[in-house]
Amino acid sequence: MIIRRTLLGASFAAPALTACATAPAPIAQSLPLPHDPHSHARPAEARVTHVSLDLATDFERKALTGTATLTIEARADAREIVLDSDGLIVKSVRTNLGETSFEFGSRDENLGQALTIAIGPGVSTLVIAYETAPGAGALQWLEPAQTASGKRFLFSQGQAILTRTWVPTQDSPGIRQTYDARIVAPEGLKAVMSAEMLTPNGEAAVGGRAFRFRMSNPIPPYLIALAVGDLSFQAIGPRTGVYAEPSVIERAAYECADMERMLRAAEAMYGRYRWGRYDVLVLPPSFPYGGMENPRLTFLTPTFLAGDRSLVSLIAHELAHSWSGNLVTNALWADSWLNEGFTSYFEGRIVEALYGEENAAMQFALAWADIQKAIAAGPPDDTRLHLTGQRSADDGVSAIVYDKGALFLRTMERELSRTRFDAYLRSYFDRHAFQPMTTQWFMADFRDRAVRGDAALEARLQLDAWCYEPGLPSNAEEPRAAAFDRVAAQVTAFNAGGPASAIPWADWGTFERQRFLQILPRELSAARLAELEGALGLNATGNAEVLFDWLSLAIANRAEASMPAVEHFLTSLGRGKFVRPLYRALMGQGEWGQAHARRIYALARAGYHPIVQTAVDGIVTPA
Ligand SMILES: [Zn+2]
């Protein structure tokens, strides 16, 4: 989930940095929330504290229909409450005092519409009868042919600001809400949510079976999530398990075998896991992201099912979000590095704890290369951690938000010592649990608790340069991975004419293979490419990350022989991280690539999530 720039109009006073260390914080927090340019809500006047959904899934009409009952807190003089909505069809609104009026504002391309509801003294609940639009941006309604089970499937993706397309609420990450839900799914399908499952087998209901859920921790609304499909469950450990379609469940459980160990390693570093269970849901291939950290139930792309557990750092990443993101949350999308940078650092620490220092080092070295690429691509304004001038909430440069963010935390760790930095981070998660965070508040807290007026330390850290300046500060250190020196030697040998058969491919893991393909020269002769393919079986690799790097190289060389593999890849999955750059690469190869891009996109588009369709529509332009 990615960002670019923001408009942070007025500067806001740093609040007192206090929070409760053990119990969930009271939902009406004392912090004055900064203005969120990506929401219509005015929470200082009236805000939502709880959402109660009662929805039926209508697969014929591709709509969720029912009610959302909102619990609100309002100032005594408030006469209206403003919600976010995008495409919702609202039939009526009642308050606890009776029928009331509502009005939609004009539609903004990025933000949707304000839904303003009249309230008065004594109003504490709103019952909104509504349904979603067929093209709701958060929802993907899959046809049987798009799933492994051959049955229909629905899933939601709320981040960054798409929850407003299926739930009428205040859709700003600083406005935390608890929720409960009753979801009616067609007979034979199961509903799961980012919440405690109260009825694992469902209950008899008109039109199918009803499933009930409860999330009693206050969460940012982008984490309200739903999936409905033919789902099996397999336990991994006492607190962990996997949901997937029946034909995928065995492979999924195999790949997720280390989840319980990851959870224990994370808790040992940064404190108790506060969400009860940690389960994952492996979605059909059109899921637009690698993973989405929906609380209690991470949603995952099936592209991490490599068959050899080589891509499980994805699970470490989503699990880490249970602290950075879900517990302490960016109040504004301009500060999404507070979610993603912290999480990428934390992911590296879990990888190190389970799979050793060398693996973590290789992962950071790959990230360093991505940062360098992002900085070279510019523009400089897009390479700050705290983004300025942002228009869209989720259109940005992941290498900055994720990898530069993580590198900043590694720099803090290096300058403080790991022991001191871990103690700080653990207390940060405890003190700000269930609270929003901004760059400004984080910096004030870090100076107060970790720097403590040490002028020499302050100078070494270059905190302001990291957060507010483009590029990398002078204290950024390139991560070293000895294994990558050996990979570089192999590239040198190959470039000097050495045979592809001499490459120790079988001895390498995913990271070494990725590195090799990434640092090969971008221009190779057709004969050399064919030799690589023949020796390493690249077109047929089951590892999506390695295949992506190979196909990128093949496209750069207009390798016709790899086009069937490109077509298969792009028509069989919809993960934006892979799909967008490959289309961009094809479109950059003149008429040859553009013809392939248009032909493949015509086949693939219907299978992509609306988020990815919108992105690729902007890349693969008509001839
Ligand atoms: Zn993430």
List the helices and strands and how they pair.
Layout: E1 46-58, E2 63-74, E3 80-85, E4 89-95, E5 98-99, E6 102-104, E7 113-118, E8 125-131, E9 139-142, E10 153-156, E11 177-185, E12 190-193, E13 196-197, E14 203-205, E15 208-219, E16 226-229, E17 232-235, E18 240-244, H1 249-255, H2 259-270, E19 278-282, E20 291-292, E21 297-300, H3 313-320, E22 328-330, H4 337-355, H5 357-377, H6 398-416, H7 418-431, E23 435-437, H8 439-451, H9 455-461, H10 463-468, H11 482-495, H12 510-519, H13 526-536, H14 544-556, H15 563-572, H16 576-587, H17 590-604, H18 610-617
Parallel strand pairs: 1-11, 18-19, 19-21, 22-23
Antiparallel strand pairs: 1-2, 2-8, 3-7, 4-5, 4-8, 6-7, 9-10, 10-16, 11-15, 12-16, 13-15, 14-15, 17-18, 20-21
Give a brief outline of the structure.
The protein is an alpha+beta fold. It is 35% helix and 20% strand.
- Unreliable sequence segments: 1-29
Number of strands: 23
Radius of gyration, rounded? 24 Å
Relative strand content: 15-25%
Distance between the termini: 30 Å
Mean pLDDT: 93
Percent helix? 25-40%
Quaternary state of this entry equals: single chain
CATH structural fold name of the domain at 328-468? Neutral Protease, domain 2
Ligands present? zinc ion
Question: If classified by CATH, what would the architecture of the domain at 328-468 be?
Answer: Orthogonal Bundle
Broad structural category: alpha+beta
The level 1 CATH classification of the domain at 328-468 is Mainly Alpha
| The CATH H-level homologous superfamily of the domain at 328-468 | Neutral Protease Domain 2
Contiguous helical run count = 18
